[in-house]
Amino acid sequence: MTAYLYGLGFKHAVIAGAQRVVQMRSHLDDINVFPVPDADTGTNVAFMMRSVAEALAQCNESSLANMSEAVAHFAFMNARGSSGAILAQYFQGLAEGFRDLDNADPLAVAKAAVLAAELARQATAVPQEGTILTVMRDWAAHLRAHSADPSNNPHALMESSLEAARASLRSTTVKLEALRKAGVVDAGGQAFVYMLEGAASYMRSGTVEDILLDVLPSERAPIRHEVPTEITFQFCTQATVVGTGIDRNALLAELRGLGDSVIVAGSSRSIHLHIHSNDPDAVFARAGTYGVIVKSRREDMRKQHTVARERGERRSIAIITDSSCDLPEEDLNRYRIHVIPHTVTLGLDSYVESTALTSRMFYSLLETSPHFPRTAHAGPADFHRVFLDAAASHSRAFAIMLSGAISGALASARNTAGAVKDRIDVQTIDSKSTSVGLGLIVLEAARAVAAGMNEEEIRSRIAWAIRNVRIFVSVETVEYLMRGGRVGKLQGLVARALGVKPILTMS
Q1: 154 three-state secondary structure
Q2: Domain residue limits, the chain
Q3: What class has domain 235-297+343-369?
Q4: pTM score
Q5: Full strand arrangement of the beta sheet holding 425-430
Q6: pLDDT digits over 104-151, tens only?
Q7: What is the DSSP string of 407-428?
Q8: Cβ count within 10 A of residue 173
Q9: How far, in Å, CA of 57 to CA of 49, rounded?
Q10: Domain 310-342+377-470 in CATH: superfamily?
Q11: What is the pLDDT of residues 411-421, one digit of tens each?
């Protein structure tokens, strides 16, 4: 008797797969050496899969077509990193393969898997053998070759196809030189196999565990092999774009000249792009011509690689701050200061401060956009992520935040510190300042750590800096103070008439 895949079963299989990926996050980070050794594949894919699973828990679609479309949507909205972007496109391919279907027999599932693997490959500018793309293709080929017989046991087919995926994964070590030198398999391919393992576990037991908010203990085995260290392109740049009639292939061709690891996944209505580039602003400018950028980010892979090399060396104290801290990039990198990003919105466009929105880009938008910029402090997930990143190489941390009187960031930091106390002791501090004032306080703390001071001495230096730092800001025009509501219209007109230039401070 032929068994069918229904929407509810697909939902539970994806959630179970997500559970397995989240469980193995640390191991995936450990073996991440290709395309760059920035040790974040596990973090990125686990974030995406956990977000998908948590959203699916509230999804009550019954048909396979609607459920797979929901999975694809949630994956695109939460995709991170190259493997995350490829997986998001894979889910989009499954949704296209299951279109108009209430359920699917094994042959239909196999056809959808073949389509998904092919679309994932097409979304990649330069597909590489020995990566997640290879494992996806080989798994789908096994399903296609063994699903035509209606008497096939779906459980036996899943088990045999899982073994085929594992064999394909093992072969990645010899197909890519970087993996062979490091003695590891491809991290993205391993994430895909972990996802299949979770789905197979659900098929065997018929149950799925709740997705945990924190990362579960993993079977980590520290990698001691020599890992390539050259990083040609500094920034992992990503964006989600929505519009109508988006030509993915055209954007893919445009981005090729701006870096490598180029992936443009999605549909004609929304896409998620990923590229390793030295010019994120140029990437965002190109992407913006295809639609509205609703989410963007850029990560410094050289900094990530430095942190990854230090994993396991539990340094004493980390310094954490938020992106309103106006310290130069070189100081943030030199003292390994962890930064929680806030968001700036102009109309419907949102930008992640410091990572997707540079000062140069901000002032350009300020002059050209009809919308006045608004800010929103980082959400709980961002605080959680940064705190756990610090926990990878520190046992304690000082989180020095912008003034609690003007932002809810300090309260969010305190709440998150309580949630991660089993992983890292985070002491939150109100700087009573922002911008360059906050930067000077954070810099004083970072220098105290670098000088080898103990916890009490560092705390004392921070308190001294807070007492002695004063910030005064003189503005050339009251126009933006009026637009932001800081100065009333009448006051602004009087100031203009008298040629008054206000000086702002914080008390």
Answers
A1: helix
A2: 5-205, 235-297+343-369, 310-342+377-470, 472-505
A3: alpha beta
A4: 0.60
A5: 338-340, 315-322, 394-401, 425-430
A6: 888 899 999 999 999 999 988 888 899 999 999 999 999 999 887 665
A7: -SHHHHHHHHHHHTTTT-EEEE
A8: 16
A9: 12
A10: Dihydroxyacetone kinase; domain 1 (3.40.50.10440)
A11: 889 999 998 98
